[in-house]
From TrEMBL, chains A, B:
Keywords carried by this UniProt record: DNA-binding, Transcription, Transcription regulation
Protein name: DNA-binding protein
GO molecular function, one term: transcription cis-regulatory region binding
Stored InterPro entries: HTH_LacI (IPR000843), LacI/GalR-like_sensor (IPR046335), Lambda_DNA-bd_dom_sf (IPR010982), Peripla_BP_I (IPR028082)
Domain (HTH lacI-type) ranges: 2-56
Organism of this sequence: Pontibacillus yanchengensis Y32
SMART domains noted in UniProt: HTH_LACI
DNA sequence: TTATAATAAGGAATCGATTACACATCAATT
DNA sequence: AATTGATGTGTAATCGATTCCTTATTATAA
């Protein structure tokens, strides 16, 4: 591997001068600069980032902590982040918690020891230890998808999105609306979306039946399938006419079960999700859902991160907009 | 940030001893070791990876070059890789070429300057410059998805997979089989799969009509839609009865167009894809496809990488198995 | 002509680890 | 009692950059 010293020797200058030439920093004669650059070209020399970051405390790496690496949401967000930061010469270091809260904490520590310049967390839960660790973080930190106290947060407008969706059902004349959710450990998805559903029903004077509400174990299609099964079983004789699932995958699972049982969608049961998964447009019937524009969320988060890195001060909370996509399932 | 020197001072030993205690390397009395570990615990000290990697030439990072960051294939592969390497304490540095061959070369250089311990490339094309740069790479290098000369490659069995799929159509009595492909710059997807299709038709004495073959501009759903449109237009009066699309997304696009035009699938036209996208199971009719098990491919590649990092010698080419999933679209 | 400032380049310290080498102690072996 | 080997710890060099501090050379102003 060629080092700055090799280049210096070849150009008959000191490594100080090479460094200055490369960083456009301090005086270097045009003559020498050209000589150096030529050699750099020829050798394909690239400075060792380890050495640089040891010295400068900057690594050009943004650490991202994902709950799950291979989901549509994650990869869209990562895409958006990468799009923005790569233009500024930053790289992305990915970690995957596999939905294990302990790993969130572990990775925050780890990323710091790797000298990342900033950390973006796609949080799925909030707990005391997590907040403590985040408070100790010395680099710019942003939470995406959950609002964390005293932490710069970029959040989806879960409450209004879920209200709108519930209202859509009501507008279409539904009065018995079921709900497929996830555990409340996830404040944004598990709590806020459910609260919006409950509030909207109440505001419209509609009954909330326990049998119509089911929380899946995870965000999977199977979990949606199972939830729908449970809801139908528990509400024999008083079936809901619509179901609001908090994710598209769960909605797809629910549809799957309904189709298997010979129900007509949306005739016997209207269905909606959240997330605008690609699949939602191509299943039959196409799924009414809400587009959170995850890629744009990633971009916005990334820009905030860059601002922080440039010591601009940024607002503590940014709420993203959403778009209700009305399709054939409702 | 606490450094090894701080720990050394607090424990009243030299930093040498601290380093030895942390790395279980050389003699350290039980007494001192405990003292050091306790302080490390309390302070939450983590060694600076920049300093470590500057000194040891190892960074604990595997660089991955993806053609597109937010595709099902990419994220499944990354998941598989991460699953394996994270257990060994490695992190993943992601780069996205956005299908730009120049960026492949650029990122290979960049990753090396970042001192990555190994590089995994999800190649989509093969060109002279790429091969040259790869030849200069000084760290373990693996290509996934394309076979590159003199490079450790993990490849899908595109040829046999595509043969099997074509044969399936023939078995079901189809004689007029159309093909939706991509450009030949992509040897695995664009060339091999097409060759397998052509060979299989020929072997079975079936006519190959130019009007039945169309190459989409990219891998998108829209591109599949457009391709199907072209095929139907060009082969008026002698329509194919089956279409083999080289990716699931393209197959979905093709189905979309057929449905719009009122064709029955598979009655008027059978359809198949490759890739086992989640969506393929949930569209109507469900799509016959081939599962390449990308996650497992990622795992296998990662294990090869770990072997290389441990100086075990590995076979230059590994061909993966696949599974034909027969569903309702054929 | 001399003082001053701008330009150009090098010397050496520094970042935070690892590790070769040296040295001291102590127990076991001859 | 002398030699040997195992154990424990420290000193200092090193990795490859950046940057503060000097010094030398020109160009400009007084």
């Amino acid at each position: 591997m060629t080092t700055i010293n090799d280049i210096a020797k070849m150009a008959n200058v000191s490594r100080t001068t090479v460094s200055r030439a490369l960083n456009n920093n301090g005086y270097v004669s045009e003559d020498v600069r050209k000589r150096i650059m030529k050699i750099v070209e020829e050798t394909g020399y690239m400075p060792s980032v380890s050495a640089q970051s040891l010295r400068t405390k900057r690594s050009g790496v943004i650490g991202i902590i994902l709950p799950k690496i291979s989901t549509e949401t994650s990869s869209r967000v990562v895409k958006g982040i990468n799009e923005v930061v790569s233009k500024e010469g930053f790289q992305i270091l990915l970690t995957d918690t596999e939905l294990n809260p302990k790993k969130e904490v572990e990775y925050i520590r780890l990323l710091q020891s790797r000298q990342v310049d900033g950390i973006i967390l796609l949080a799925t839960n909030v707990n005391k230890e997590l907040l403590n660790v985040i408070n100790d973080v010395k680099v710019p930190f942003i939470s995406l998808g959950q609002e964390l106290p005293n932490v710069t947060s970029v959040v989806y407008d879960d409450y209004h999105a879920a209200c709108d969706m519930t209202n859509l059902f009501i507008q279409r004349g539904h009065e018995k609306i079921a709900f497929i959710g996830v555990g409340e450990e996830d404040p944004a998805v598990g709590h806020t979306r459910k609260q919006a559903y409950l509030d909207t029903l109440q505001k419209n004077g509609l009954t909330v039946k326990d049998e119509w509400i089911h929380e899946g174990g995870d965000f999977s299609i199977e979990s949606g399938y199972e939830s729908m099964k449970q809801i139908l079983k528990k509400s024999q004789g008083n079936l809901p006419t619509a179901t609001f699932a908090v994710t598209d995958r769960m909605a797809v699972g629910a549809m799957e079960y309904l189709k298997e049982q010979g129900y007509n969608i949306p005739g016997d049961m209207a269905i909606s999700g959240i997330g605008a998964a690609v699949m939602s447009a191509y299943i039959t019937p196409s799924l009414t859902t809400i587009d959170y524009n995850n890629k744009e969320a990633g971009r916005i988060t990334a820009r905030l991160m860059l601002d922080k890195l440039n010591n601009k001060n940024v607002s503590e909370k940014s709420t993203l907009s959403y778009r209700l996509i009305s399709r054939d399932s409702v």
